[in-house]
Amino acid sequence: MLLTRKSSDRGYADHGWLKSWHSFSFASYFDPRFMGFRQLRVINQDIVAPGQGFPTHGHADMEIITVVLRGTIEHKDSMGNKELVKAGEIQRMSAGTGVRHSEFNPSASEDLELLQIWIEPAERGIEPSYEQVSVHPVDGETLKLLVAPMKEEAPVHIHQSVRIYRAELKAGQTLDLPLKAERYGWIQLISGELSVRDEQLKAGDGLAISREANLPVKAVADGTAFLLFDLA
Fold first, then answer.
1. What is the set of domains in the chain, with CATH numbers?
2. What is the DSSP letter of 213?
3. Taking the complete model, does pTM exceed 0.85, yes or no?
4. SS3 of 9, please?
5. Cα separation of 5 and 79, whole Å?
6. In which region does residue 46 sit, left (phi positive, over 0), alpha (psi from -120 to 50) or beta (all else)?
7. Which residue in 193, 194, 196 sits closest to 212, CA to CA?
8. What is the pLDDT of residues 37-64, one digit of tens each?
9. Which of 59, 104, 142, 143 could be joined to 74 by an S-S link, Cβ 3.0–4.6 Å?
10. Which residue has the higher pLDDT, 139 or 65?
């Protein structure tokens, strides 16, 4: 079964320095139909103005993944990490028993755009931890594994039976999604256009996939890129 979440139907908040689109209920935006999907709790598309950002705040018992689409994040946290996370890099923070952090756009002239993803962990009360990696596709590579459960081979690891892939396709290219019949999936389209059976997705759209093994997708435009979440 497929269910499309149109970009225009997402929650939206304009704070001046921050423009944020919420695929699921978040902060003051509430939609009882979209409280999350399986273990996936948050997908926020954020654009942060130059020199602005999120002051120090806390999280607990959540796997927080940040995918930088353009620009750079200046990250500081209570674990002692002080990092710059650039476009093409992925950051994972397991909040566990509790962590505090800040995120700022250090540029004086360029916007920062990112996807912030929250995934509910399989276990609560774990020790907080941090990972950051640069992930660039190899020429001709259409699908790349970004995130996997602990002890599996992947660039980034989380405490949950969830995998995240990034796909990049040219117009006309097809791909069978690596989903098993008993699993669930979510597509978040970053750019381009994608055809999935009778569903036509454009940038910002999401698609919930329930128990569809090896579902074929086709890029309708060049520069089509999306995240695929393989969920339990």
1. 10-134 (2.60.120.10), 143-231 (2.60.120.10)
2. T
3. yes
4. helix
5. 36
6. beta
7. 196
8. 999 999 999 999 999 999 999 999 999 9
9. 104
10. 65
